[in-house]
Design goal:
It is a single chain. By secondary structure, this protein is of the alpha/beta class. It folds into two domains: about 130 residues, Lyase, Ornithine Decarboxylase, Chain A, domain 1; about 260 residues, Alanine racemase (TIM Barrel, Alpha-Beta Barrel). It contains 13 helices and 20 strands. The strands form three sheets. Strands 3, 13, 14, 15, 16, 17, 18, 19 and 20 form a nine-stranded mixed sheet that branches. Strands 4-5-6-7-8-10-11-12 form an eight-stranded parallel beta barrel, surrounded by seven helices. Strand 4, helix 4 and strand 5 form a beta-alpha-beta unit. Helix 3 runs parallel beside helix 11. The protein is globular. The protein starts with a helix and ends in a 26-residue tail after the last helix. The structure holds pyridoxal-5'-phosphate. Pyridoxal-5'-phosphate binds next to helix 12.
Length: about 475
């Protein structure tokens, strides 16, 4: 022992040396890296037992949570309206146009954002007035433009041919129509969606603004841009807002038009795992508040001088889709079979496939059992029921053994599945909504043979499959 040690009694004592050791983390038990995936299970949706849902509505089954949907919408609204004085939201129909979903969001105050005649008609059919519709999309026919003009919808022009057509429609109807133009530009953060709208950098957009300013029947009042989807960088929106604000100032100075609104589209990421991104969504997906801060702070600062000129700040419109609806819906599916692949991997066949869960092509959805599973977790491939090699619901997930009839929950699945799903090989299943009061309502009925074939027509001469008699039984030896 050194003299120093002897003399300095207040110095902290050294910890005794301990032989280094490696402690294996026993999978299946709670350890310092968290609970193993298969230890997590979920047996209810908003308090309604999964077993009861399946008893009443069969497997597979999509389940929408009205509570989560409303909460997501309220959170979005709060994040933006507390940061910018004039905000509107448009529900992006293509993300999920189940009527019950749309009407929850309309009840929360959303306009309808539609991109086709079908979506326009769907919004009107739900009772949305024309002046509560934002009409985007590159394929608007004369007939639907006439209707939209007559009903006062907010038309966002995508290209010059639409501009000419709309001008002609307005002229024939003897109207002056307030319109917006869709813009595309390079934010420096995302791939440029340059096929939509007028390009800013090349001067096409200002040319379009000039053209509208020169029209007797069109009046430019808005700017729209949707820069992409699942954008994980809030700075992309900061750049977007700057570009749109600069363009607004240029249009107003050069053409004399007064821009009343800036619509920045959608694109916020949801709490889902994009394939190829290895960190969990909780670590890489910005919060709604982070997006709101990047957007609103920038717009507030840039439009401050408008107030000093007594020219009002533009209304900010958002068309957020997936970030509102994705985690408000799950898919419950049942195990049909267990297999082993020749390479030794375990495979499970489920009763729901990529025809139902279209986003399985892009996401590694979270998969949890609906009961505690015991046994050693193994790498497992989850296949759907389609007789197609591409029908892979999860390429690799750690799961203990499951039995035929066991159920798994895929989430989040609320965005782009109930619109992009296919009737392919199998019928599409029921969709239910768990209401805020705990009641469960069927919001889309499962298909059956009658529903699937009701649009088909058989020409008279094809009505009998075997007019010359049925083929011989090929199991009997021919004479
Ligand atoms: C014009 C427009 N607005 C809004 C959205 C919704 O986007 P997201 O679901 O990424 O928020 C889309 C989706 O492609 C769109 O094209």
């Amino acid at each position: 022992m050194s003299t120093k040690d002897n003399n300095n009694a207040s110095e902290p004592k050294k910890k005794p040396w301990v032989k280094p050791s490696i402690t294996p983390l026993r999978s299946g038990f709670l350890n310092k890296s968290g609970a193993a995936r298969h230890m997590i299970w979920r047996d209810n949706i908003d308090g309604v037992p999964v077993s009861k849902l399946l008893e009443d509505f069969k497997s597979p089954l999509f389940v929408v949570s009205e509570h989560t949907l409303r909460q997501n919408s309220k959170r979005l609204r709060k994040a933006f309206s507390t940061r910018y004085p004039d905000i509107m939201f448009g529900w992006s129909y293509k993300t999920n146009y189940l009527s019950a979903v749309c009407n929850v969001l309309h009840q929360e105050g959303d306009l309808a954002e539609v991109v086709s005649q079908f979506e326009y008609e769907k919004a009107r059919g739900l009772g949305v007035p024309g002046n509560c519709i934002l009409f985007n999309g590159p394929n608007k026919t004369r007939a639907i433009l006439e209707r939209a003009v007559n009903e006062g919808a907010h038309i966002h022009i995508d290209h010059l041919d639409e501009l000419y057509l709309l001008e002609d429609v307005a002229k024939n109807l003897g109207k002056v129509v307030d319109v917006a133009i869709r813009l595309n530009f390079d934010t420096g953060y995302t791939e440029q969606w340059s096929r939509f709208g007028f390009n800013v950098e090349s001067g096409h957009a200002i040319d379009a603004a000039w053209r509208i300013a020169a029209s007797d029947n069109l009046n430019l009042v808005g700017l729209h841009a949707h820069i992409g989807t699942f954008i994980m960088e809030p700075l992309a929106y900061k750049a977007q807002v700057k570009i749109m604000n600069n363009f607004m100032n240029e249009v107003e100075t050069k053409t004399g038009c007064v821009i009343k609104y800036i619509d920045i589209g959608g694109g916020f990421a949801s709490m889902n795992s994009l394939q190829g991104i290895y960190l969990p969504p909780e670590q890489v997906v910005p919060s709604i508040e982070q997006y709101a801060e990047a957007i609103c702070d920038t717009l507030l600062e840039l439009t401050h001088e408008r107030e000093t000129r007594e020219c009002r700040r533009p209304t900010l419109i958002l068309e957020t889709g997936r970030a509102v609806v994705d985690d408000a819906e799950v898919l419950i599916t049942s195990v049909v079979a267990n297999k082993h692949l020749p390479d030794g991997r375990r495979a499970v066949v489920l009763d729901a496939g990529v025809n139902h869960l279209f986003t399985a092509f892009w996401y590694n959805h979270d998969v949890v059992p609906t009961r505690h599973l015991s046994g050693r977790p193994e790498e497992t491939v989850l296949y759907g029921p389609l007789c197609m090699n591409i029908d892979v619901m999860r390429n690799s997930v750690m799961l203990p053994p499951v039995n035929v009839g066991d159920t798994l929950i895929f989430s989040p699945v609320g965005a782009y599945n109930n619109t992009q799903w296919l009737q392919f090989i199998e019928y599409r299943p029921n969709v239910v909504m768990v209401q805020e009061n705990g009641k469960v309502s069927l919001i889309r009925e499962a298909e059956n043979l009658e529903i699937v074939t009701q649009q088909e027509r058989l020409p008279e001469h094809l009505k009998n499959p075997y007019p010359k008699g049925t083929p011989r039984n090929f199991l009997t030896t021919p004479k």
